[in-house]
Amino acid sequence: MSDRPEVEQLVWLRDATGAAYDTRVLSVNGDSVVLERPEDYPGFSAPQQLELLWPAEGGLLQLAIEIVFDSSEWRAAPLAATGPAQRRSHARIAVHTPMVLVCGPQTMVGELSDISERALRMRVPDGTVCSAVAGTSVHVDVTLDDEAFVLDGTVLRVEAHPGGADVVVLFDVAGETMHRLRRSLFFELVRLDAVGS
Question: Which fold does the domain 93-196 belong to in CATH?
Fold first, then answer.
């Protein structure tokens, strides 16, 4: 696991108030990281101490940094060692929000219970006739962080339980949709970390 984000990676900055700003990595030079200045970050003259957050295989990572000069490119000097920003051991995020799953002619309304960049779990209530079986092609409509997504995927499995069933869907997205999905998931991670800290 690298202790620095990758060049061109989408990352987040968090200030002392908990406000988060998205940006990207321009270069990594030794210990320091050069970042694109977030468009919505207020101007400053005094050095800024922030948290740099980015996703990695083991979860969300965090690096305390200082920005001394305000310009179009920020040189982030580390103030401490990189460490985990949250306790979860994977990037599957518990999110409870309404969603719709379309399976052939059937439309099911349920609740999203967790999601990652490649899979989601939808809970459908008891009494819902679920025609989805493993291998079925489906598409889902869900909103995360005020972003609406329509994701085409394949059912991995259906898990019956008292009170309903869980439908686990695998999907593969790229390009702008992946960028938007990562943005929404990262903000959810930041919020959950803030709640748990």
Answer: Thrombin, subunit H (2.40.10)
